[in-house]
Amino acid sequence: MADDEEEVYNNTNRAFLQAFLARSTLTYDEAKPILAAICTAHEKRETLPEDVTEADFNSFISTANDAVSLYDFEIRSAYHQITRARVYALVNSTSDPITQLATTYSADEIGYLKRVLDAMFETNNTPRREVMAITSMDALRLNRPLTVDRRETQDGLATQGSAGQGITGKEAEKMLSTLVDEGWFERSRKGYYSLSPRALMELRGWLMETYNDLGDEDEEEDRPRVLKIKLCYACKEIITTGQRCPKRSCQCRLHDICTQNFFRMQKSKKCPLCKIDWTGDDFVGERAAAATSKARRPGGGTSGAGTSPSVVSKGGSDDDHGVDDEDG
What we know:
Blueprint: H1 11-21, E1 25-26, H2 28-43, H3 54-68, E2 73-79, E3 86-92, H4 97-102, H5 107-123, E4 134-135, H6 136-141, H7 169-181, E5 185-188, E6 192-195, H8 197-202, H9 204-211, E7 212-213, E8 226-227, E9 242-244, E10 253-254, H10 256-264, E11 283-284, H11 286-296, E12 311-312
Antiparallel strand pairs: 1-3, 2-3, 4-6, 5-6, 5-12, 7-8, 9-10, 9-11
Helix pairs in contact: 1-2
């Protein structure tokens, strides 16, 4: 690697930032061959990927962050909810992320995206079943708005999900594929689309403002709050896959990996909020749909209800199961 005293922003930093910009996200393992190639070219001697340390990577990230901060960008990181790899993403720190997407997609495409997000975080996110994902089949059915979206923003304006005439089925399929390629969506082997770490980082504020009803200060204090977007009790990041407290009214949620570390330090395996036994059999994410299907089927079951869903970049099996809404 480069000498420690060479901390100024130079061509190696520029090359790294360009490589970062060409990708939607980056992990340490993905960055090692990139940095090795950059340093080999810069130092005129071979640098192997295994020669790149995590300290080297963090140094490049820090320098890049300083450079992009002048343009209202920043590099944020979060753990992947399933693999637990730390994912880094370059995000706009000032403008509305949906507005940013509008520079790439048409109004009808943004309307389609909004309908898919509504399906994830409203239709498929109920007290009985917090799936927060959508099957390929259900996502494609949303290519055209069925009715005018009556839900309004806090400003009293209709959400973008109601705009336009929609898009064709082929356009919807292409857009879903593009959203996966660009790192906004992930697609599991069972065909469920969910938000990626990049999307959760960029859309965090927007998701909480859009889907969480915290009420107004002038309203009665006993009015129940509606929290569709919840945070992991341990790591405080948004949780869309993991475990939940068996008590439906309890707000405690934990990522799978967080449960291991959290309960290892506790005397008993109990919910940290309501203190009832934590069974590990109540899920958030794709497994919540599988568990519901299992409960419906007399004497039957679904495989994989108790294991974390696998994530594939594109494609996957054709084993799609629609998620209907029991709770209305």
